[in-house]
Design brief:
heterodimer, A: 8 helices, about 50% helix, elongated
Chain lengths: ~160, ~350
């Protein structure tokens, strides 16, 4: 089958049914793309701005007529002054503390991007040692001395 | 630093050896790290950025790193030299020209490890390895990260992990990418199918120079999207699994080409060499496309006079900043195309494959 616009082989076939009327369209990929019938493949960089808008304002029509009460007004980072609006405009945060001060905006976003919310990988040594110490005290409390000794050794090696 | 000393070398990523090097050109792992008490780039003043550099330089100098990294300032560097480092995959295009303010890069003489300072994040650590070497690259960068962490206080959150300027990198801060040469999948028109499958499992595909760049010369980079909720080993494992599958597809496609249309492919490779060796004007893009055919020809044993390392050398030396460094002065677009053709002609004659 040939493309209805040019003569290249048609690879995109569209059928839409409106009021029981069926309409078919056969196009080659290029013509379909030119008419925006094929979504561009998602790029490597997620479109943060679009995603943020979608998450914070899913129904723009409804939001336009009413005062935006849902919008958190006073959320600005006390350390760097970053606001939700500015983050939405640039997609970049201002300082490490933003992860706390803009947490309510960031959490749904992180869930969308990563399908996860909690880090489970490498941690700086000081954090690892602190965790081992907590675990060691728990092991001692539970009288699991073998585990406690293992953790004590880990802490010692890291302390070097 | 005098970058001219790097010019005759291929750099780690084009060494042309390493595991599965018939398909996998190189492996790269990068980590995004930020200092706990300083603002990210969007909020940083020149003084903040200078402070990041001071601390990074000190940590680099005092740390007992396996690779001896030497720091160079970018703003004081000639534009041509910056472009040269981009072509060698040591810095990003953003660090070279898209950003302003104090910034720089430290890298080792083998060009295996580099640390960009004041890119999007305070530090961007990178390790490059020739061939398919995810574990080795990870071990290298893990050690480098440990060494720097002893002298720097990183921004780390118990729930979110390593904090980054962009939430797409938070968590591990790790992006692992593998550069593949997939000419046979391109020739047999299967490449789009492979990439559609990749997008479904949340891996990104990009061209040679990263985000937004076109895939020239059948070179593709495959990397992870997700940095939060999975540990480094799991992320690396997922990429490895996918690469192994793509490797099989590419090799099957290569075998099919040899079996079904060896003569036609031999002709295509011979014509590629013919064009490279006799053109008087040639663009970087055309050079890359033709070198891709030559590289495939070598792996299909259709050619025996040219080693892969020579193809890699032609590949890097015909990129625009390299050509200009070789010429010793700047060249405009037309001049570059003619200098490129001249270089290719001389080199191929030297290799004795073109009479």
């Amino acid at each position: 089958m040939k493309c209805q616009i040019c003569d290249n082989p048609a690879t995109v076939h569209l059928t839409d049914i409106v009021n029981k009327k069926k309409r078919e369209l056969h196009l080659c990929e290029r013509c379909a793309r030119e008419r925006n019938l094929i979504p561009e493949p998602p790029g490597p960089q997620i479109d943060l701005k679009a995603l943020l808008n979608l998450l914070t304002n899913p129904f723009p029509q409804a939001g336009a007529t009413e005062p935006t009460t849902a919008e958190p007004v006073a959320t600005a980072c006390e350390a760097c002054g970053m606001t939700v609006a500015e983050f939405k405009a640039t997609g970049r945060l201002g300082c490490p503390h933003d992860y706390e001060s803009l947490r309510s905006t960031l959490e749904p976003l992180l869930e969308r991007i990563h399908r996860g919310m909690t880090h489970v990988g490498k941690a700086p040594r000081a954090v690892r040692v602190r965790d081992w110490k907590t675990q060691m005290h728990a092991a001692i409390a539970a009288e699991d001395y073998e585990e406690a000794a293992r953790l004590r050794d880990l802490i010692r090696t890291a302390g070097e | 630093m005098n970058l001219d000393s790097l010019l005759p070398n291929l750099g780690e990523w084009l060494r042309g050896t390493g595991p599965e090097s018939d398909v996998v050109v190189s492996t790269r792992v990068r980590l995004a790290r930020n200092l706990a008490d300083l603002p990210f780039a969007t909020r940083a003043t020149a003084a903040h950025k200078a402070e990041v550099i001071t601390r990074a330089k000190e940590a680099l100098a005092k740390s007992d790193t396996q690779h001896k990294l030497e720091y160079t300032d970018i703003p004081s560097m000639a534009v041509l030299d910056r472009q040269f480092l981009v072509e060698r995959q040591l810095i990003s295009r953003e660090l070279a020209g898209g950003l302003d303010g104090p910034r720089g890069v430290a890298f080792d003489p083998t060009e295996t490890a580099s640390v960009m300072v004041n890119e999007e994040d305070h530090l961007r650590l990178q390790v490059l390895r020739s061939g398919f070497a995810l574990d080795e690259a990870w071990q290298d960068i893990d050690r480098l990260d440990d060494a720097l962490e002893q002298r720097l206080s990183y921004a780390f959150h118990t729930q979110f992990g390593y904090l980054t300027a962009c939430p797409t990198n938070v968590g591990t801060g790790m992006r692992a990418s593998v550069m593949l040469h997939l000419p046979a999948l391109g020739l047999t028109k299967q490449i789009d199918k492979v990439f559609r499958a990749l997008q479904k499992i949340n891996l990104a595909v990009r061209g040679l120079h990263g985000e937004g760049s076109r895939a020239f010369g059948d070179l593709y980079q495959i990397s992870n999207h997700v940095t939060l909720g999975k540990n480094e080993a799991k992320i690396l494992g997922e990429i490895r699994e996918v690469i192994v599958t793509i490797l099989q597809y590419e090799r099957q496609a290569r075998n099919a080409i040899v079996k079904e249309r060896r003569q036609a492919e031999h002709d295509r490779v011979a014509r590629a060499i013919g064009t490279l060796g006799s053109a008087t004007m040639i663009t970087a893009e055309e050079t890359m496309e033709l070198l891709s055919a030559v590289r495939l020809g070598i792996h299909l044993h259709l050619l025996d006079s040219i080693p892969v390392t020579a193809v890699n050398q032609l590949f890097i030396h015909t990129q625009s900043a390299h050509l200009q460094k070789l010429a010793g002065h700047t060249l405009d677009g037309e001049e570059r195309n003619s200098a490129r053709a001249k270089y290719l002609k001389a080199k191929l004659r030297e290799l004795g494959s073109h009479k």
